[in-house]
Amino acid sequence: MVSAWYMDDLDQDSDQRLEHHKNPSQPVDMKDVNTLTGVLHWKLNVDTHEEDGVLDKIKKDRGYNYEDVIEISPEKLPNYEEKLKIFFAEHLHTDEEIRFVVAGSGFFDVRDAKNDSWIRIKVEAGDLLILPAGIYHRFTLDSLNYIKAKRFFVGEPLNVDTHEEDGELDKIKKDRGYNYEDV
Ligand code: KMT
Ligand code: NI
Fold it and tell me: Does the beta carbon of 99 sit less than 6 angstroms from any atom of ligand 1?
């Protein structure tokens, strides 16, 4: 079962991989998480999700036409420590962030702006989360140190390695008349 709770204060030396419940604990059900933050959650069947149509319908309804898989563990992810630091730095996006956990587990922390608090959502295999655009969030592994998740996008991302010469970005720049850039 997916579960969520208000987090205790995370000080500098505390371990982000622990659950960090308040004392006494303050659970939040996913309906309230949705009301407070806009986060959507579905529980899918990991074994049948490729053919049972539930995920296909969500993808179709929301226009997701590109996906990849991210596997995070000390062995599987290059620059693991650095990536984890990036995932756990509070940030927001101009697009939704969609993650479907196929194995392992972890925590997505989402900011409840109204109550000025973090809500920690524990995800495991079968959990599909959609974080809406514009909400502050962060991600950490739990102490099992492993998650594998599918990520969905609207439109195929550009190739970072070849974008200067493969023409995809040039076409977008030309179509839209961008004639100046910086970094
Ligand atoms: C992100 O963008 O923060 C992530 O992809 C985190 C890991 S997905 C389980
Ligand atoms: Ni993010």
Answer: yes
